[in-house]
């Protein structure tokens, strides 16, 4: 009790002394008084070197700035800055793109990098931050592997005897007899995906592509060339022979070959970070791949008898057609690598992967011959020239195969989170059925007693390749 009274007396004495000093000098300000009062509130020393600061019993309000006498009122003080609310990990990932941060994925081996001004978009002033989603839209300008076809149309000079006209090897091949190249076809590809964690350690996506229908047509008639034939090998003659379609004074007609193919594919994939630094990353890619290759070939000929007094009535029309439809469907697992590199305004991506799985191969073969004699009902029989009892119908099998894909993409940062890209892609299937390979150009009974044409699985390979023009958006 005595000690407390002594403290109060001491403090009162200090107040008196300070007031007397202010009055004597006439220059002390309120701020000086506040400073002194704060110093006075410091508790006594305890021990030789340690001093404990006692909490102030009174806190002087901050002084207001001095104003001129003709100023009516004081300007209000600015409110204190509000403390920003706490944000989630995802919000920080989406918006903290201008500050220094640990590059996404520090928990999975990432490096500490500077902000946007230190790498990537710096020279383009296109800082995008750390994206959560990606979307890629590409226009495909691709070519596909041509078709291997046997000789399907031949010709000879009009001086050639009708019994040997169009017969190989002396005849001239008009279509077939090798690989018929295909034209460029346009298509599209869409790739959508998102990161499953803020560190961009792994993400999932879906990619779909489709290549436009590749149509190839060949047409020739007797007005274009007076001598036309479809060649084949005749086991009954044990020699080459030909179906005469057009010959002056005997028959007139036309040959048509129509071919078309379509390619689509879809991937459901995941990408896992293997390693990275501030400018590049390497991912392992795996998932499920589906692709479908449909290829169709139709061969038709029509001829009208123009010979007067022959064995066949004048005006008799014979239509022969053969159709081969090959369908290939692949299901498999993806194993691959993807490397991305960021070089300021430019980026590039390299992709190498292989899908291993099952190819379901199916061939549908159809054909018929229609003969229309004047004044009689037409007759239709199953089988054409390259189709008959031994190969008409549907045939299928499953093969273990692989699909290989290589790709390079160069991107330019057009705007924030937006890139324009140009690239090259190559996709290769090592076991597919093509319709031209299923044609048996032999007719009749062979020395072993087998009737032809007959069916046998003849597999080949298939590829597509070309240029990609795209737009890449990240957000």
Considering the chains and any ligands shown, give keywords for the structure.
single chain; 475 residues; Lipocalin; ten-stranded antiparallel barrel; four-stranded mixed beta sheet; elongated; 3 domains; mainly beta; 3 helices; 21 strands
Give a short account of the largest sheet. Answer: 10 strands, antiparallel, barrel
How is the largest sheet built, in terms of strand order? 3-8-9-12-13-14-15-17-18-21
The helix content, as a percent range, equals under 10%
What is the helix tally? 3
Gross geometry:
elongated
- Taken in chain order, the helices and strands follow as HHHEEEEEEEEEEEEEEEEEEEEE
Q: How much strand?
A: over 45%
**Overall pLDDT score:** 82
Low-confidence stretches: 12-60, 66-74, 86-91, 93-107, 114-122
Number of domains: 3
Q: Give the end-to-end Cα distance, rounded to a whole number of Å.
A: 71 Å
By CATH, the topology of the largest domain is Lipocalin
Specify the structural class.
mainly beta
CATH class of the largest domain: Mainly Beta
What is the CA-atom radius of gyration, in angstroms? 43 Å
Q: What is the CATH homologous superfamily assignment of the largest domain?
A: OMPT-like
CATH-scheme architecture of the largest domain: Beta Barrel
Count of distinct strands? 21
Task: Give the topology, please.
Blueprint: H1 2-25, H2 30-40, H3 89-95, E1 101-102, E2 112-113, E3 133-144, E4 147-149, E5 153-155, E6 172-175, E7 178-180, E8 185-195, E9 202-221, E10 228-234, E11 239-246, E12 251-276, E13 280-305, E14 317-343, E15 346-372, E16 379-382, E17 393-415, E18 418-433, E19 442-445, E20 451-452, E21 459-474
